[in-house]
Amino acid sequence: MYTSLRIEVNNQNLAKEERAMINLANEIIAGKRLTREDDLSILLTADLKELCEGANAIRKALCGNKVDLCSIINGRGGRCSENCKFCAQSAHHHTGCDEHGFLELEELVEGCKVAEEKGVDRYSIVTAGRTLEGADLEKAVAAYKKMHEDYPEMELCASHGLMKEEDIRRLYEAGVTMYHSNIETSERYFPEICTTHTYEDKKEEIRRAKAAGMTICSGGILGMGETWQDRLDMAVLLSELKVDSIPLNFLIPIPGTPLGDRKPLEQEDILRIVAIFRYINPDSYIRIAAGRNYFPDGGKALFEAGGNATITGDMLTTTGQNTTQDRSMLETMGFELKAKRA
Fold first, then answer.
1. Mapping DSSP to helix (H, G, I), strand (E, B) and coil, where does residue 27 land?
2. What is the pLDDT of residue 48?
3. Is residue 142 within 8 Å of residue 108, measured between CB atoms?
4. How far is residue 262's CA from residue 32's CA, in Å, rounded to a whole number?
5. What's this model's pTM, rounded to 2 decimal places?
6. What Cα–Cα distance (Å) separates residue 303 from each residue in 23, 112, 320?
7. Rg of the Cα atoms in the chain
8. Tens digits of per-residue pLDDT, 137-170?
9. Which residue, 22, 116, 127, 194, could crosslink 76 as a Cys pair with Cβ 3.0–4.6 Å?
10. Is 162 exposed, middle or buried (0-12, 13-18, 19+ CB in 10 A)?
């Protein structure tokens, strides 16, 4: 049965909380892991500067200075049967998004080639729709095999909805090492965001991908109307699922979707969220995705609050930072990046 986290917000002296954040960070570095049984209120009330400093210390100690760059390509766009309220590609909404069938192998492989030349660590095909099967599955398997043969140093990721385990295994055998399936939000709030599939469907997909041999990329979108408790619940569930990479998207309201008029999160809230996810998932990739444009400098502060991975280049339906800009910013900050291919 789903158990909500305990949140006990109190009026402790801020100075005491700040010291507690440094102490907590040191405990996590030494091996402590936060769980549903812990009182996590300090993460909500701590001074933001202290919280981010502690998160960055955890990142440095447990993950080092390597930043993991991922590029994605929209392998099949639009006409999605699912009714996720945030998504421009849902057939339930009217957004005017680009609609196209599964891309040709040559275009997918060319995208991988460009990503390799730019020093990107991971390349992922993402497809709209509930699942991937039939002719489109065969095209995907062929594309992954070709990319793995031509660019063996590129980590291949896949994001194709709720697939069968035997089909995921075929992707693994074709060279895919990571499967992406966002849980999106907390279990409590998920029915407010999507009703065409369930939270248990999401968790079961993660289990199937693990059983097929994949590592897991799963996070979600923040700023959809969820509470801070929902954010904590989400972070802890990802820890319980032992997710390797956690993409954090900060809602960019898209006209034509039910969330199109929602006010974006404030910078301070975004930074607190990133830091919280680092405290609760200390040795995972905290992957900064959509929403970096809310910061004037490409989101430098996000990588000083525990972030150590990002999606670089354009997102599926919104614009992101280009890879040249990202490399310049991250190298200036002292991070290590995969070398560009000559």
1. helix
2. 96
3. no
4. 37
5. 0.92
6. 21, 25, 16
7. 19
8. 999 999 999 999 999 999 999 999 999 999 999 9
9. 127
10. middle
